[in-house]
């Protein structure tokens, strides 16, 4: 390491004066990040400036922090640190640039700034805060968490890929490893082929899941043969190596309320765009999750664009664009824990079952939980929590105000909160060209989805929920889908109809369960290249009326002869043409 | 998962009675773990019983917990959880069976019990506690963190290994991965050949370091060919795949005082036997770190037997056996942080540089630090800490009561505490057949090492310390080595003499630096198969007198003609025969 010049006294005095000046301005509600030493377009690390600004804001109850338009770079070195559990993402001791804990009434306005992050760092984590607005900036990374290789050729031994300079790699002991200039590594967990002309997942391409890296051989600098006999790909297409873990979502919110995200461009992150846990009243307007301009990349972010777990209040998403991300545009659900063992007649140990749900503590004294067999997924008892004793991120002891019912099945039954569900409005959005679904709707609050364009590789709308695999609580009660354009969805493998009402209700219980209720689909337009419009079971109140269906030849029809409406085990049905 | 039977009311009532009975006995100072539901030799998980017992002990100020002799099994599921930084080990969110935080005056007596751990779990973590005694039990694991394969053959393509059932594995996508019955994985970071007849590292064997697993092919169940062209091994010997990380040391102590460890057998752990940080007055008596009986394994534990960082008070190790572990028997040192940048004339940012030192927070207001150039390693200023602001596990801002000196070199200079050093006594111990050194002595307190037997693959005694690689503060001031038998040490590659006084003093500064001082070596016996007795530089006060040197033919002499005493850049020397 080079020796650095000694601290300049002039700078010290200038900074002291600057801080005194700031202290004198307490009443002035607006701060400029430059006052804390950040210099736009300098490519210097602005993280320490953010830490100082946030400390000052907290102390002086400042309500606005602005960034003059320009580029700001953020590195892990001077970032805050906290162990973070984020449902549907990967836990870890994270470096965090904007860690807002217990903040109230704060607007951060980027005035069109570009925030460029470097390495394993979380841009925004907002906890136990209220009335927070983030607006007018973009989020991107210097080196992405995923990597992309252009397919040059394919044969029985595997495929040959060309990697651009933005995706540095090495062959380590015969295995392909992605790196960066700082020698950080970027493990990958799956591969998926993209069509770089259409800027979407290749027609009917499937994920390849691999552990422990891919055996590979470098042919020449930037040209690599993957030594994977089973792997296929079309020359000219792009193979995306997706990040193994979701460690660095762009914006993570928990236990907060009254949040507004406005005019944000999220070009990349190593996880989700916006994920909110146990929070209320979240508004998203003019959010673009899309490919980083000028990079030639086919992928935007490595997981869902937005995700909401055990949220309440009003949830609004409007005038937004969600494209090219590696998972769904929006996913809204609760969490089930499994009853692991009965400790006393009124006390159980519960277990968070999915690895990405560990540490999701939602059970509180006074809270109401539904008790559900994982077979029919319908509540058979309601319990009020008396006390909670968290053992570790996986197990919690819960005592109730009454005895558990006689039919309790430990190792099978699940519990979920019934205290709160969001009222959801999603309108005027474009959802396209991403891997998997458009929206997973699992709120029991009123849901309105209108005036959106869907062009998704999987189902445009999926209703899910199960107590055996993902342990996501869903089961809608009042959903309206109207005036949407469903344009040639399901060109990939992640759905069996444009609108799919599935769940983990086990086959022999589907005739008795009515897990989802009151879904109204009307005045939409469906452009379809295969017949599969609607698939569903265990629904009470399903209406599909007044929609316009147009045949398309945008993709090959691999499902000729399939039923437009594959609907069983439902009641109160009204489906035009069924 | 199978449905489990409902809770038995009789058991509930019995437990309630049992707890009431306990509450009534508050005055009785001794508890039996069976009172909390543990059943010896049942192979049931006793972890929940330990959690209940510890909660009861804390509440009722109990001073003794006993285990009736027998086997007790411990699993991660019901263990406590905490993010732990342990210097010279790997940080992580750990599951902990005995988490003693803020305990005082407690004896845990195993009465000869066998504690058998399963998976990634830490047996004992003791923090901010005092007057704690652990005695009379053994620690072992159901499945070790390392794996061992018998070498069947070796050729230019690699080696063929046979794995016993106790080391389950799979070939995952062409790569060898070690597993267990619960499908946990056991990553390895290095390979080392052992001689199973002598029960020690093979003569002059070196570590092979590999990342990302070894390409391999299964020949038949249990027989695997490693496809590593560079790897060598002698048929009949055993290749040890050492754990990639040190995640589960047996006993970890921090910020505690008056600790006693007596009559413990540590047969295995995934890290160190006993590691103590920032603690005072630690006594170890009758500790055996050795191979698990009846398993046929060649390795005991995967890292150092004992390790002490920034400790003080009296440190005693006596009547103990340290053998077959993967690193040194004892290592005693402080930690240097690097001065990263100057923030004001009296304030710096310091950086913990070694990955396994991250989170080692030792700088406190009022503490005294020495300031050292990393070239000569001698203090050129002493500073008193005014305030500390931890940024993250890597960086901390430190303000001093005076300005930093003009000669400060950021990115090069290091700081370490000079408040406390342990007075060390190590006697009547056997240190043998492990990888690497016997003891690394880096305390500036009085050190006495007497009446021990050393048969180590590297140097028996190593004096170290540097500010460039390991960042370990050392530099002894008063060391006596007497009446020890050094029996055929240095049959491996981890030393250049039986007693080695090295350091990170850079070559051109060795003539001016006197980093180590006052080392007296007398009345010892050296059985040597090669001539190299003593190697050292930058020492003031080095005496090697009245020792008995005996030639041996126990191993081939690969260093014929080497000097017995390779000593330069020293003063106040007295070496018989030099």
- Helix-strand category of chain A: mainly beta
Please provide the count of β strands of chain A: 49
H/I helix tally of chain A: 2
**Please, what is the oligomeric state?**
homodimer
For this structure, what is the CATH homologous superfamily of the domain at 31-143 and 247-323 in chain A?
Single-stranded right-handed beta-helix, Pectin lyase-like
The largest sheet of chain A, given as strand count, sense and whether it forms a barrel, is: 20 strands, parallel
Q: Remind me, CATH topology of the domain at 31-143 and 247-323 in chain A?
A: Pectate Lyase C-like
Shape of chain A: globular
In the predicted model, the low-confidence regions of chain A spanning at least 5 consecutive residues are 1-20, 23-27
Topology of this protein?
The structure is a homodimer of 578-residue chains.
Chain A: H1 9-24, E1 30-32, H2 47-60, E2 64-66, E3 71-74, E4 80-84, E5 92-101, E6 104-117, E7 122-127, E8 130-141, E9 147-155, E10 158-163, E11 169-172, E12 175-178, E13 188-195, E14 200-201, E15 208-209, E16 214-220, E17 223-226, E18 238-243, E19 251-254, E20 257-266, E21 274-277, E22 280-289, E23 306-309, E24 312-318, E25 321-323, E26 330-335, E27 337-344, E28 347-351, E29 368-372, E30 379-390, E31 395-400, E32 414-417, E33 423-427, E34 430-432, E35 439-441, E36 446-450, E37 453-455, E38 461-463, E39 472-473, E40 478-482, E41 485-487, E42 499-501, E43 516-522, E44 525-528, E45 534-537, E46 539-545, E47 548-551, E48 565-568, E49 571-575
Parallel strand pairs in A: 1-2, 2-6, 3-6, 5-7, 6-8, 7-19, 8-20, 19-21, 20-22, 21-23, 22-24, 22-25, 23-26, 24-33, 25-34, 26-35, 33-36, 34-37, 35-38, 36-40, 37-41, 38-42, 40-43, 41-44, 42-45, 43-46, 44-47, 45-48, 46-49
Antiparallel strand pairs in A: 4-5, 9-10, 9-18, 10-17, 11-12, 12-16, 13-14, 13-15, 13-18, 16-17, 26-39, 27-28, 27-32, 28-31, 29-30, 29-32, 30-31
